[in-house]
Amino acid sequence: MTDCSASCGKGSRYTVFGCVHRLTHDRVSDSLCDSSTKPSPQEEPCNVQTVSCICSAECGSGSQQRAVVCLMKSEDGYTVMPPYECSSLDKPLGQQSCHMKACGAKWYYTAWSACSKTCEGGFRVREVRCLSDDMTPSEGCEEGLKPEEKEECNTEPCVPHIDENCHDKYFNCNVVVQARLCVYNYYKMACCASCTRVAQRQSASKSYR
User: Fold this and answer.
1) Rounded to 5 degrees, what angle do the CA atoms 185, 191, 194 make?
2) Are 67 and 52 in contact (CB under 8 A)?
3) To pair with 87 at 20 to 30 A between CA atoms, which of 12, 69, 71, 108?
4) How far is 188 from 166, CA to CA, in rounded Å?
5) pLDDT tens string 112-125
6) Spatial distance between the Cα atoms of 48 and 36, rounded to a whole number of angstroms
């Protein structure tokens, strides 16, 4: 009998007749028998218990699922029977691994890092690498499809912290600012609001340079 024509899914196999010795039943050359009496090959279905054999992966390794049922053969064909009717038989596997064509190299990337700033525009980064099927570095990835490695984040403006206790105790604190006396703790406390505003302006001007 030949092998099934389908490794997964319904197929056919054939019983092929040959010439044998009448006494020893050993196979001999077909030329020793009358070819006119040779029966035609007999076909029978195989793998009829398989319903689905589609691989779960389009490339690389995946798995195949199939329904395995108990069948009884009769003159009219096959009839599905309750599972207990086949309890004395070895049940075929309902799942098996499958291997499709190699997926080839593709881009892999890590999660984004934390943003470099909490406001007024920072940036975050991630690692992007081209790897082959066995997870080794490759140069086979399409450069135009490479994911971004760096992007902007937290672009909203910074909201200054307002201290309710920070206010000017004197009416002439603008003179203190002009005289650049805010570097001294006494004036920084006495003219807190004015000194804080000038410090914020200086900080903002440095960040835009």
Assistant:
1) 115
2) yes
3) 12
4) 10
5) 999 998 888 899 99
6) 33
